[in-house]
Amino acid sequence: MDITLSPGSAVAPFLSYLNSNFHSAFMAIAQFFDVFISAIVTLLNLASAPVVIGALSVVCALVAGWRVGLMTLGGLACCLALGMWQPAVNTIALIAVAVAFSLSIGIVLGVLLSRSERLKAAARPILDVMQTMPPWVYLVPAVVLFGLGAVPALLATIIFGIPPMIRLTILAMNQIPSNRLELGAAIGARPREIFWKIELPSALPTLLVGVNQCVLLSLAMVVLAGLVGAGGLGSEVTRGLSRMEFGLGVRASLAIVILALIIDRVCRGTVPARFLKH
């Protein structure tokens, strides 16, 4: 008898057990994340699209310069002209929540791992596997546990964005000049003060590069998220593909590219403006 073993044959019973015994807990988690997504969508829908686009453009101009502000204004206006404004709002909300959690988890774990060579050695193969695994693999267990919708896509996006943030945090912490740490210890600063006043400001340029990468990787998950009913631009691309509507797919794809360019320029413009002097 030919018996074939696969990772799925071992994981599937475990996921079924979790789904059967902890379904209420997973639904509570889903509602928790839904609150964040709905809050951002509601905030961006408080005013008309032109007003929101103008406000976002002003914010981007203050953060990254007037050129980026004009680019934001033109790009979001194009999304509105393409009829993709509401899907773009849903995508922005999904990315904002995913990036916030990815950064929080990734930075904390990266700082902890940077303190120990043994922990870094142990985490390296795990991070390698997580980064080389196809992104859609993360969607499968998320859908099994949380069903279709925005939450499984959000959780898969969070998990997908954590490994690069951990790596870049470790890199940022390891690049801090030792003389700065020695100076902090010499003047009697406590470890907490050294971290917040010396280590974190010194690591910020590299950390912001990690933020940029995390955002763009999260945006890359948008199309895959559309496969599980997450809404947003990814669902528009999926709808255009399933219905063979070339125009819809192109308009949604252009909107995704526009958002990617805006986010990339905002992140790039923020780094030299404020933190490269540290």
How would you explain this protein's 3D organization?
The C terminus is likely disordered. This protein starts with 6 loop residues before the first helix and ends with a helix. It contains 13 helices and no strands. It is mainly alpha-helical. The chain has one domain: MetI-like fold. α10 packs antiparallel against α13.
- The ordered string of helix (H) and strand (E) elements is HHHHHHHHHHHHH
Proportion in helices: over 70%
User: CATH first level: which class?
Assistant: Mainly Alpha
CATH topology, by name, is: MetI-like fold
- The CATH homology group name: MetI-like
Distance N to C terminus: 66 Å
Estimated structural class: mainly alpha
**In terms of per-residue confidence, which ranges show pLDDT below 50 for 5 or more consecutive residues?**
272-278
Number of DSSP-assigned strands: 0
What value does the average pLDDT take?
81
Give me the CATH architecture, please: Orthogonal Bundle
Radius of gyration: 21 Å
Number of helices: 13
Q: Hey, roughly how much beta strand do the residues contain?
A: under 5%
Biggest sheet features: none
Overall number of structural domains: 1
Shape: globular
How would you summarize the topology of this molecule?
Blueprint: H1 7-21, H2 23-44, H3 49-64, H4 66-81, H5 85-114, H6 117-132, H7 139-146, H8 150-174, H9 178-186, H10 191-220, H11 222-226, H12 232-242, H13 246-274
Helix pairs in contact: 1-7, 2-5, 3-4, 4-13, 5-8, 5-10, 5-12, 6-8, 7-8, 8-10, 9-10, 10-13, 12-13
Descriptive tags:
278 residues, mainly alpha, MetI-like fold, 13 helices, 83% helix, disordered C terminus
